């Protein structure tokens, strides 16, 4: 997959381009991108994605609780799906103030050479979101490109969206969030030195320094899988302040079952699978150890 970032250049080949923030690349996004790839191939077009380096909500000062994917992981998934060209630019004040037609002319036509544009049913673009799918269709006729609008994907009566998935994760509804993502919610980062409290209790933990401003799951204990060097390990992960030991920082620490080895400064991925229980404060270490054993036992039944 060819990646173009912040370059004032025109693509020479005709493209089929999917538009969106695509945070999470959930099952709705995948349906949209797959349609772009399939229809693009039928027309002999390069399957492409246009997006912004940072989520538009950051500049618009909207409440964004965190990201569902790191930039590198997003690129990896897009490549796996079959996207051949990823064109990314910064969402700055100049881009923000483009009217819908100027956005189409300067970006879709002059830079990306779009001949097919694919968007979701609720896509908005241009200054203050003045443009929508119908606007895009009218401009497509003027600038000689087709427009395809993808209908929403619905699960259990809810329209799949990145904002809903974030809400589900922050409320601990990780199973439904995973269903909408089409995979387990994942955070990545490097293992840093902690207070070694888990080790003294007989349950050493890997304390994660995140590589991205991820949305933070509801505080509590989760059944997880931890990947290190491409190998999957069964694990249990705590998210929160560790109230028993009065930590001042939010921690994500995982205990990998039956694992022995030094993970300091190593990169790991934690896949969240099931919510076990909320964060608790224990009166003493023995009570905490008892609960940890109970938590570990419970993951075999999930």
Uncertain parts:
none
Query: What is the CA-atom radius of gyration, in angstroms?
Result: 22 Å
Instruction: List SSEs in N-to-C order.
Output: EEHEHHEHHEHEEEHHEHEEEEEH
Could you name the CATH class of the largest domain? Answer: Alpha Beta
Structural class: alpha/beta
Structural topology:
Layout: E1 2-5, E2 15-19, H1 27-42, E3 46-52, H2 56-59, H3 71-81, E4 85-89, H4 93-96, H5 100-109, E5 114-120, H6 133-143, E6 146-150, E7 154-155, E8 158-159, H7 162-170, H8 174-181, E9 186-192, H9 197-201, E10 206-210, E11 220-228, E12 231-240, E13 251-256, E14 267-278, H10 285-298
Parallel strand pairs: 1-4, 2-3, 2-5, 3-4, 5-6
Antiparallel strand pairs: 7-8, 9-10, 9-14, 10-13, 11-12, 11-14, 12-13
Helix pairs in contact: 5-6, 7-8
Key phrases:
302 residues, alpha/beta, Rossmann fold, Elongation Factor Tu (Ef-tu), domain 3, 2 domains, 6-stranded parallel sheet, 6-stranded antiparallel barrel, 28% strand
Q: How would you summarize this macromolecular structure in one to three sentences?
A:
The protein is of the alpha/beta class and 302 residues long. The protein has helices spanning 27-42, 56-59, 71-81, 93-96, 100-109, 133-143, 162-170, 174-181, 197-201, 285-298; strands at 2-5, 15-19, 46-52, 85-89, 114-120, 146-150, 154-155, 158-159, 186-192, 206-210, 220-228, 231-240, 251-256, 267-278. It has 2 domains: 2-159, HUPs (Rossmann fold); 184-301, Elongation Factor Tu (Ef-tu), domain 3, CATH 2.40.30.
